[in-house]
UniProtKB/TrEMBL annotation, chain A:
Keywords linked to the UniProt accession: Hydrolase, Lipid metabolism, Magnesium, Membrane, Metal-binding, Sphingolipid metabolism, Transmembrane, Transmembrane helix
Organism listed in the record: Plectus sambesii
Keyword Transmembrane among UniProt keywords: yes
Pathway where it operates: Lipid metabolism; sphingolipid metabolism; Sphingolipid metabolism
The Endonuclease/exonuclease/phosphatase domain, residue ranges: 6-278
Record protein name field: sphingomyelin phosphodiesterase
Automatic annotation (TrEMBL), chain B:
Protein name (Swiss-Prot/TrEMBL): sphingomyelin phosphodiesterase
Pathway: Lipid metabolism; sphingolipid metabolism; Sphingolipid metabolism
Keyword Lipid biosynthesis found: no
Enzyme superclass (EC): hydrolase
Molecular function terms, GO-annotated: metal ion binding; sphingomyelin phosphodiesterase activity
Keyword vocabulary terms for this entry: Hydrolase, Lipid metabolism, Magnesium, Membrane, Metal-binding, Sphingolipid metabolism, Transmembrane, Transmembrane helix
Source organism: Plectus sambesii
Enzyme Commission code(s) on record: 3.1.4.12
Domain Endonuclease/exonuclease/phosphatase per the UniProt entry, residue ranges: 8-274
């Protein structure tokens, strides 16, 4: 049998002014294009408005009758899945860390990023049942490669993604992990995902991959994308490959990658507008069953190899977490200083309006703002940063356990 | 190969804060607990409410010779309080933080800060893989008017989903901990049904001198408040060892309560305000290929649909309540903002009121700030989490096989 998969970051920020350009038009075109195609599984990311999801559901209902939105955070998660075949169960994992609430120019924190799982039951050509686990995700954005403030969070998300897939995919015949990882091939997080979860990248496993070394399969910040900002074009002139379709399968199922392409760029050959600021990735798999042997888990024989590949990745990740923990310590000190400073200001200005009555309203507003900032600093400095510290320690300890196991 | 597995779970009640928040006699009780664990023959020990990491380290060190492997699940502000100790190697761990866990502003409860989780440890005994889960769900507080019911139900559902999805590779899965739910509660039934686990206490072979099985608020526990005894004279069974067979032959040898009073001495106290649950299993892997699914248990568990239906209703009530709360918070913001603005020149007219006016305005600012945050963000996050659980349940109802 053949299974066809699509993933696209739709860039669907719904607010006026800050929101994504041409959103209504693009979503309409996205729905139109997917409705006339033949996909079995589709995942969209950055569908922030539930109304957009409902509209997509309506427009895709004939070809992809089963759909699920993974609700999380304040505005998110933005991740949803559509399936031609019946979804029999879903599971959601919210990443423990996802940026900072006060980085409002980023907004990731409010998105409540997740990895979502949709379980789908199919029947193969010989009547044998096939259980497919369709995972979709969207990891925190990078923003500044040279000084990645969010690196500990992003590494933790990659690790939690890999761990989640590894632990929940035991019973599946085929696991598909798709989405916008915001990590490039070779990045620590991306390797962590592939190695820890035992996944293969459909793009690097596509037929003819070795011959077409020039085609790098870029999916974002592409020079011919009308939404790519000029400064990105200068920084990475070719674009980045950050959207993936990854897979692994039970040895009882034989699988080949029939094709893997970057697609859905311009909405029409004569139009300057792109479907999104990302391009889509699509892959087709050919499957048939190989005997009745159902083995325990995936590729058990490669466990030793996996462990030795995993070791340096975990060690580098632990270093990153240690850096992150150090940053938390220094930040806590800064926040305590800020709290002291703000309290001092409030105290000093106590009688300002008695001395200069005209300043009464200004003083009141100033004190309101100062108090709010003070309250936030107290919350984040004492509680928020401690929660961050625990999340980093939690991931670090889990990794240490893996490393000690490799010694056995 | 036949393996005997001896499992213990205990809510240690170890709040490290000074009186009145902290737990009474904490250091003494934990020291005695460490002694009991080191002297006893346990293979797997799951502890909850061990809030202070240094308490965990002390116990870890004390039992090092019999339970050399361990893991503490860090989460939230003070927690999670959940840890697992094992005689056999822990080869990997996984943790799931519940999406809903009470309210930050219910500081008289404190559950929110605990960052409640279900922690999983994969334990390897030779060729056997044992998945050990330990958890501590949000407390009930008022059975008649359970404010936290949607959250607790959501936690029970997420626990069952987590176990269901991660248990497949294991020969035996053990789900232990303080569920803060009784066998008659909907959440308990959802866990049993969705995760396809069995309750070791109900599956035990009965003997003559039976205990009630109550693990909390027992009349023979000196920490049980008198007021609770009046409501519930026998105590409640809130702590469990549940199990699920994988591809191995499992026999429950025994299940009993342990670690009640520290000694026979009349003046001596109990180990905790809970007592421990102990279960012993025999695992046979004699080359016999048992079926991978625990399909034998399917007939014995409740049909899922009515349980999920009731749960969906409770979650929808939670969503409705959150929407109503938002209107309330907006009203509060408007009223407080009006008071704030109206008071603008009060100290110019009445200079003596300068300091009280300032303090009142600071307090008003904090309350307005909280109401804005909670009304627009906090409640939205709660609604989304409830919706996510509800949709997940609806998807399960689609699975008619």
């Amino acid at each position: 049998m053949r299974l066809s998969v699509l993933t696209l970051n739709c860039w669907g920020i719904p607010y006026p002014y800050f929101g994504s350009k041409d959103r209504a038009l693009r979503f309409d075109k996205i729905a139109g294009k997917v409705a006339e195609s033949n996909y079995d599984f589709v995942s969209f990311q950055e569908v922030w408005d539930e109304a957009d999801f409902e509209r997509l559901k309506g427009q895709l209902g004939d070809v992809l009758p089963y759909a699920h939105y993974f609700h999380s955070g304040v505005i998110g998660s933005g991740v949803c899945v559509f399936s031609r075949h019946k979804i029999v169960g879903t599971l959601l994992h919210r990443f423990s860390l996802n940026g900072y609430a006060h980085h409002i120019h980023r907004g990731d924190w409010f998105g409540g990023k997740v990895v979502g799982l949709a379980k789908v039951r199919l029947e193969m050509d010989d009547g044998r049942p096939l259980l497919v686990h369709f995972y979709a995700t969207h990891i925190h954005a990078e923003y500044d490669r040279d000084n990645d403030l969010y690196l500990p969070h992003r590494t933790l998300q990659a690790f939690e993604l890999a761990d989640f897939v590894r632990h929940t995919s035991e019973g599946a015949d085929l696991s598909l992990v798709v989405g916008d990882l915001n990590l490039e091939p070779g990045d620590l997080g991306q390797e962590l995902v592939l190695v820890n979860a035992g996944l293969n990248d459909a793009w690097t496993n596509r037929p003819g991959a070795k011959d077409s070394a020039n085609d790098e399969g870029m999916t974002s910040d592409k020079p011919n994308n009308c939404y790519t900002p000029e400064r990105q074009k200068l920084r990475c002139p070719k674009g980045k490959r950050i959207d993936y379709i990854m897979y692994n399968h039970n040895p009882a199922v034989k699988l080949t990658v029939d094709s893997c392409e970057v697609t859905m760029e311009k909405i029409a050959s004569d139009s300057p507008i792109n479907f999104s600021d990302h391009a889509a990735v699509t892959a087709t798999f050919k499957l048939h069953s190989v005997g009745d042997a159902r083995s325990n888990g995936h590729g058990g024989g490669n466990a030793e190899e996996r462990r030795s590949m995993l070791r340096p990745l975990l060690e580098r990740s632990i270093e990153i977490f240690n850096d992150g923990l150090q940053v938390v310590k220094t930040t806590q000190r800064h926040y305590i200083l800020a709290i002291a400073f703000l309290l001092l200001i409030l105290f000093i200005t106590i009688d300002v309006e008695l001395m200069i009555p005209r300043l009464a309203i200004l003083a009141m507003m100033g004190r309101f703002a100062t108090t709010v900032v003070l309250a936030y600093c107290t919350w984040h400095g004492i509680i928020g940063l401690r929660i961050e510290r625990k999340a980093l320690m939690s991931a670090k300890n889990a990794m240490v356990i893996y490393l000690s196991d490799s010694n056995n | 190969m036949d393996v005997v597995l001896r499992v213990l779970t205990l809510n240690c009640w170890a709040l490290p804060q000074p009186w009145p928040i902290g737990s009474k006699h904490r250091s003494y009780r934990l020291a005695k607990l460490a002694e009991a664990l080191a002297a006893g023959t346990y293979d797997i020990v799951a502890l909850q409410e061990l809030w202070d990491e240094s308490d965990f380290v002390k116990i870890k060190d004390a039992v090092r010779s019999t339970l050399p492997f361990s893991h503490y699940y860090h989460s939230g502000l003070t927690g999670s309080g959940v840890c697992i100790l094992s005689r056999f190697p822990i080869v990997s761990t996984l943790m799931h933080r519940y999406s809903l866990n009470g309210y930050a502003h219910h500081i008289h409860r404190g559950d929110w800060f605990g960052g409640k989780v279900v922690g999983m440890a994969e334990v390897e005994i030779g060729d056997l893989n044992i998945n050990v889960y330990s958890t501590h769900l949000h407390a009930e507080y008022d059975k008649e008017n359970d404010l936290y019911l949607p959250h607790r139900l959501c936690q029970a559902f997420e626990l069952s989903q987590f176990v269901k999805h991660t248990a497949k590779g294991a020969h035996l899965s053990l789900v232990t901990g303080d569920f803060n739910m009784e066998p008659s509660d909907l959440g308990y039934r959802v866990i049993l049904c969705n995760a396809k686990v069995k309750d070791a206490w109900t599956m035990r072979s009965l003997s003559a001198d039976e205990d009630t099985g109550a693990t909390c608020e027992r009349p023979d526990n000196i920490y049980t408040p008198k007021s609770l005894l009046k409501l519930c004279p026998d105590g409640k069974r809130l702590d469990y060892i549940m199990y699920r067979k994988g591809h191995a032959d499992i026999e429950l040898v025994k299940c009993e309560n342990r670690l009640n009073r520290i000694s026979e001495n009349e003046d001596d106290v109990n180990y905790s305000d809970h007592i421990a649950v102990y279960a012993e299993f025999q695992i046979k892997t004699m080359g016999r290929r048992s079926s991978m699914n625990s399909s034998a248990t399917k007939e014995e568990c409740e049909p899922a649909a009515p349980l999920l239906g009731k749960s969906i209703q409770i979650l929808e009530n939670g969503e409705r309540r959150a929407k109503w709360d938002r209107r309330f918070y907006v009203a509060v913001i408007v009223v407080l903002a009006t008071i704030f603005i109206a008071s603008v020149n009060v100290e110019i007219h009445f200079p003596a009121w300068a300091i009280p006016a300032l303090i009142t305005r600071v307090v008003l600012t904090l309350i307005i700030g909280f109401c804005v945050w909670y009304g627009f963000f906090g409640l939205t996050m709660e609604e989304k989490a409830l919706k996510a659980a509800k949709l997940s349940m609806i998807q399960l109802l689609n699975d008619t096989t």
